[in-house]
Specification:
Largest sheet of chain A: none
Shape of chain B: elongated
Strand order of the largest sheet of chain B: 6-7-8-3-9-10
Bound molecules: adenosine-5'-diphosphate, magnesium ion
Order of helices and strands of chain A: HHHHHHHHHHH
Number of strands of chain A: 0
Number of helices of chain A: 11
Helix content of chain A: over 70%
CATH superfamily of the largest domain in chain B: P-loop containing nucleotide triphosphate hydrolases
Radius of gyration of chain B: 24 Å
Distance between the termini of chain A: 27 Å
Oligomer: heterodimer
Chain lengths: 253, 321
Amino acid sequence: MKVLSIAFNTFRENLRDKLLYNLLIFALLMIGSSLVLMRLTLGEFHRLILDIGLGSINFFGVLIAIFVGIGLVSKEIEKKTIYTIVSKPVARYQFLLGKYLGLSLTLVINTAIMAAGLLAVLYFQDVPIHAVLFKALGMIVLEFMVVTAVALLFSTFSSATLSAIFTLAMYVIGHLTTDLKAFGQKMEGVGRSVLEGMYYLLPNLDRFNLKGNVTHQLDVPVGDLLMIAAYGMAYTAFLLMLASVIFQRRDFR
Amino acid sequence: MDVLSDGIVHSDRLSKIFKVGFWGRRVTAVDGVSLEVRRGEVFGFLGPNGAGKTTTIKMLMGLIYPSGGTATLFGRPIGDPSGKAKVGFLPESPYFYDYLTSREFLRFYGHLFGLVGSVLDKRIDELLELVRMTHARDLQLRKFSKGMLQRIGIAQALINDPELVILDEPMSGLDPIGRKEVRDLILRLKESGKTVMFSSHILHDAELLCDRVAMIMKGRLVACGHVSELIAGDTTHEVEMVIDRLLPEALERIKPLAGRIVLQGERIMVVLSSQQAVDQALDVIRSAKAKLVALTPHKASLEDLFIRKATGAQQPVEAQV
Ligand SMILES: Nc1ncnc2c1ncn2[C@@H]1O[C@H](COP(=O)(O)OP(=O)(O)O)[C@@H](O)[C@H]1O
Ligand SMILES: [Mg+2]
């Protein structure tokens, strides 16, 4: 109940955020731009539209997750609104969880809107729609959940600007972890251990990327999806617990 | 410390040291504050800006952790949810979710206490009535004046019908009417059986309202007790005299008697500190055919105590627990 109230209030706060609408409009423009594409590259055409569409959804969703996510907690501390919440019988982890769920709801709804835009474009351009597209969208949302949790974690102990930098770095590295491992295997000693450690510790965000499957119309078995989902949720839970532990010890001053 | 007494806030040598800046320079904001707030009283927590009032209150509310000492609310260690459930809190110069309307705002805080439905709606209407904000119930907080924000903030602190209300500088930044409104509200809370602890750097407000006060300076308690007792221990028996048409040679005769003389054109204000001086001054006035306009005993106030404490040796006093 308390968590849900905070989540709903966060969602309402997100809805009054101009940044959200600006990003959403850009995303829809990007997706819509495929409507005016000439069918110059006939064979590649379908792939191009799907690539641009899913890429835009992913890119703008991550921007929202990061730039709204970093403000979730730091803004409340800066504006001291948190004083009135933590002084009530609300545990600090409940506050964090509420903020997290609120932004997640915002992201789910945003993704649905962007996906609707993509589906409309696909329909007008006579691109066949396969089930794997929806699976890919689901995994994109899962990636947003992980990125939001990363942003939330950083914002529990650092300023908004630093959190943005950390989260962006984590996002980029998160997509390169497979390369990290491969690179590490060519090395010896400490370097190898460090890179392998990073491979296991950092989120492997590439796992959530099913764009290739969509453009090549390769279906993904449900078992694989469940594995990816379990990974995403476990990683998110880990991040949120870490954030709670840090947040619990913090002075609001 | 005796938990069974009617003390509902207890602090025992509470301290807070902040580390500031890159090098972690240590700043002692609160230094061994022991105090008690008793059931049903209005307790004033007084001190100049930067004395440590807000820091102490933030520790009591579980917003920052003490560096030393302990404190309890309703016998529970600070931060314990069951203690917090009986407390209402208004932070200093509060910021609120300004995109909410008064009702949405109060509903949100009601939910945090598990209040829902018609019970909550009724409570919200009552509170809006109490702080006289019914007219603004559907107005967004961003359009509120400072006084309105303070009132809706107090309503927020009362949403759970708390036994104890803690208000940090509830009157600062308000105009005289706004301050009177807050004072009246505090008195109404007391009448309805609630305990109120508020901080202020405005001593006059405290004198009008408080049963007991604690004075804090540079993080240390310098006085604590009933307002009347604190003032009684500080009586000065000063008398203020206002005189018109006093000739210069008569003024020369009064000068040695007076502690202080203020000239305002034709009018002269003299402060005398003994009955004997008053008698002699009256003789001078009569013989010089001057006109006595006013004769007022100078009432001892918290302000005198405050100034004496601030200028005198900064000896910390044991709280009256
Ligand atoms: N977050 C903080 N970091 C460092 N020093 C602080 C902080 N908050 C307060 N202080 C210092 O602690 C002292 C007490 O401040 P405060 O409790 O706000 O006083 P008051 O509420 O009585 O005006 C001041 O000297 C202030 O500079
Ligand atoms: Mg203060």
